[in-house]
Amino acid sequence: MFDQMLWFVARGSGIVSLLLVTASVCFGLLTVARFWHESWPRFFNLEMHRRISLLAIVFNVVHIATAVLDPFAKLGWSSAFVPLVSTYRPIPVAMGVVSMYLFIALIITGLLRAHMPQGLWRVIHWTSYAMWPLALGHSFLAGSDAGSIWMLAIGGISLGAVGACLLFRIAVWDQNRGRLDDAVLTSSWEDATRRGKGR
Amino acid sequence: MSGRRALDSGMRLEIDRIACDAYGTCAELLPEGIDLDEWGYPVMAPGNVPLHLLDHAKRAVDSCPVLAMRLVKAQAPALAPAPPPAPVLASRPDRTEGTPPWPPRPQSRAPKRSPEARRRR
Amino acid sequence: MTARLLAGQAPAAGAETLADHRARLGDLPGRAERSHLIKTLEAAGLLGRGGAGFPVARKWASVAGRAKGDAVVLANGAEGEPLSHKDRVLMTSRPHLVLDGLELAAEAVGARRAVLYVGSEHTGARDALEHALAERAATRSSTLPRVPITMANPPVSYVAGEESAAVHFVNAGDPRPTTVPPRPFEKGVGGKPTLVQNVESLAHAALIARYGDAWYREVGRATTPGTALVTVTGGKRPGVLEIDLGTTIGEVAQWAGVAAGDGSPVLLGGYFGGLVAGADAWNLPLDPAVLRASGTAFGAGVVAFMGDATCGVTTTARIMDYMAGSSAAQCGPCVFGLRAVADASARIATGQARGDDLTRLRGWSQSIAGRGACRLPDGTTGLLASSLRVYDADWSSHQHHRRCTVPRGVARATA
């Protein structure tokens, strides 16, 4: 019974991890896209993004530990930390391993953001565009639930959520920073005299 | 305005005006000290942050998605608690006229029943 | 008027050669005397001539105090203020005076490197300085330590002359202001303490090093001692003039051929300055301390006579448009605020004012200052505020009656 427990927890914590990371990516996209509303204050997106990311650490650690400790999964510790050495579904497991490393980098640079060059922080944060698809792929392919209806549904919802947020972020691409140059380059005097002549 | 003076925290807010991109989270979390102008950019109250608002100021600084805000030790620390309307000179003061000053410290919680009501019981 | 910087051959005659420079002024003082230069400058009370008027000795001392022999001196000859020509005239006609000042400053602050920061379009000044550097390299006889001097030539723009922009350009090729702190005297070119000093200030320092602080204080008619270069526009005789500080605007007007009793406003300090009303202007001494006390500023030494035939509203509107276009496009309040100011003032000037334009303009003249990374919005709205005060009747007339008080046909902006 106990050995099955590890398997259950590994699956469950993995799925929760995926959902949390998905939510974190969504809130991150909404932060940059400056989504806000009367009932959705501006500070909400970044706060949720940070807090959910930190919560995801817990579930990630549990997922990795239980998956490795599960005697029936036949994953050694090396499978969790070295991509492609796993004998069980090497590529899907490797996707999880790479995603884990990127996640660690994102967490560390996120916590230390104020103490590092912002250019470096930004480049590392862009790797989240690789981290999340790898996590999603790992979820779809690596687990024993792969192919089941509800796993596909969870994956589909995650994909939909991130897709929607990404489309929104692209749609509002040019926020303030882009408009600065335009405002400087116009000429008030020329516009006014041209309008005046037209009268 | 009530006669209750705000204690000075000895810290003031600084904004990196180049990094600031009008996200506006600072004004949400510290409305007592930060207003947004018509283009969404912050207008700060002059002087140091009052002590009772320091925690809120820290949250406001943390909330900026581009880390454009900072809390720094004031150059000339006030020797006595500064009255709210008088601005303390900082090395790069925001405009000091026309900006609404920091509000005074709120009154301590009023008793649930007035003394008269309590006496009547 | 005492000629000091411009003593010797007329500026129109071109660059003074090294031989003439040495013949006229003699050698630089010995090392013993030079070691007290910062104290001498302090005793002289020399103020910076780049526009801010900051005491030169204090600036040098703050760099010297931080440097460990690795400081940098940057001679600021960017001159992005369109109404100012004095730095160009000085660099073109007295390059050796500027270079003397640069080398003296380098020694005084413990610098290992010097930069000549001259706008790329100021070709006369660049050529004169390059030629002067070649002359000095060929006949090295001074006891000053050799400091490598390089040229940096930013595109001519208003903000390029700002000290953090100068440092940014030398470090990264980007002539836009950066966020301070750290200020250049703390961390500048190559991360080292950097002295950014206007070329005219360096030239004055070069003379004070030779003749002493008492000599410097011999002239000066009001509070501040010394001479200064001013650029005069308007009137029959525009040009660059060296005045004793404290000379009144009226005397300069006489020199410039501006009609006596012309009560029209005067623009002091340039686009970063302020307007003084004609009636008050004539007796106002051109002295940084006096001008600051009376609410204007000496700035970069521009004295522009507006003349009666100038529509003050139009002139201001065009200056606002120019300044809004000069923004480095980094800070929202500057970009959007100055653009709103330019739009509103252009509408008012051309008789297309909206109902609340003038009210909003008055509000913006107070609310934009101090909210950018550099002082461009401060200077611009300062000029706006002084225009709203001095030309109050004209602004109202344009706003409410769509009528210009200057007769048609002669309304013309000087800028």
Summary tags:
heterotrimer; A: 199 residues; mainly alpha; 9 helices; 77% helix; B: 121 residues; alpha+beta; Alpha-Beta Plaits; two-stranded antiparallel sheet; two-stranded antiparallel ribbon; 3 helices
Write up what this structure looks like:
The complex is a heterotrimer of chains A (199), B (121) and C (415). With 199 residues, chain A is an all-alpha fold. Chain A has helices at residues 2-32, 42-69, 77-81, 90-111, 118-126, 128-142, 149-171, 176-185, 188-198. Chain A has one domain. Chain B is of the alpha+beta class and 121 residues long. Chain B has a domain at 1-74: Alpha-Beta Plaits, CATH 3.30.70.20. Chain B contains 3 helices and 4 strands. A two-stranded antiparallel ribbon of chain B has the order 1-4. Chain C has a 5-stranded mixed β-sheet, sandwiched between helices. A 4-stranded parallel β-sheet of chain C has the order 3-2-1-4, sandwiched between helices. In chain C, helix 7 (123-138) links the parallel strand 2 (111-118) and strand 3 (149-152). Chain C starts with 17 loop residues before the first helix and ends in a 14-residue tail after the last helix. Chain A binds chain C through residues 176, 180-181, 183-189, 191-193, 195-196, 199, and chain C through 317-318, 320-321, 324-325, 327, 329-330, 332, 335-336, 339, 342-343, 345-347, 349-352.
Arithmetic mean pLDDT of chain C: 90
Topology, number of strands of chain B: 4
In the sheet with the most strands of chain B, the strands line up as 1-4
Classify the beta-strand content of chain B into a percent band.
Answer: 5-15%
Label the CATH architecture of the largest domain in chain C.
3-Layer(aba) Sandwich
> Can you write the helix and strand succession of chain C as a string?
HHHHEHHEHEHEHHEEHEEHHEHHHHH
Span between N and C termini of chain C?
A: 27 Å
Rg of chain B, rounded, reads 17 Å
Calculate Rg of chain C over CA atoms.
22 Å
Query: How helical, in percent, are the residues of chain C?
Result: 40-55%
Number of strands of chain C: 9
Based on helices, strands and strand pairing, what is the structural class of chain C? Answer: alpha/beta
Mind telling me the CATH class of the largest domain in chain C? Alpha Beta
Principal-axes shape call of chain B: globular
User: What's the total helix number of chain C?
Assistant: 18
CATH homologous superfamily grouping of the largest domain in chain C: NADH-ubiquinone oxidoreductase 51kDa subunit
Provide the low-confidence segments of chain C as ranges.
409-415
**Quick one: overall form of chain C?**
globular
Please name the CATH architecture of the domain at 1-74 in chain B. Answer: 2-Layer Sandwich
DSSP summary: helix tally of chain B: 3
